[in-house]
Design a protein that fits this description.
8 helices, Inner membrane-spanning protein YciB
Amino acid sequence: MKLLLDFLPLLLFFVTFKYADGRQDWAAAFATDHLGFLVSGGKVDAEVAPVLLATLVVMVATVAQVVFLKATRRKVDLMLWISLALVTVMGSATIYFHSETFIKWKPTMLYWAFAIVFLVSRLALGRDLLRKMLGGELQLPDAIWARLNWAWVSFFTALGFANIYVAYHFTTEAWANFKVFGVTGLIVLFVLAQGLYMARHLPETAEPADGAAGPEKHQP
């Protein structure tokens, strides 16, 4: 359920963009008629309309996600609060200026915010965020937790640069595909790589020595 909630805004963004991108004239007319009061100049061009509508959908979906979690008395993670703040600010700028540049920068700012959170947890608070999340389930040496934490800092930093590169060197459609499938694939591969790395450093389970008998074998 949580996984679905986490990916729902992203999926809705992608579906809305793809639908509107295939009907740009309709999307421009719809956005102008219904969102013109939110847009500078009151008119939305056909080229920008798909990403504008997709941005509005992801803003509503993210707000609804937070409201649902609060209404059901579930914890709203720090990452979601950061995402909500960024999508609200950058999304509003995208709609008002009817420019896709702002929403294209949003993922990069989010990834870099994640990197900063991992960095601050290590340097300022003296603890590793990943260890706080998984330390109750996995027992690893301090040095390994530190390496994993730095790996996440590096990964999110690089992911932010990758998003900007795709945004400025490829079409908006290619960027949307990268945002949904490319980034998701990279995260899955990175998590798998970290899982393999952690598995190498997990303490081995102690086994009884050969010939040792259980308590029941010593019964008279």
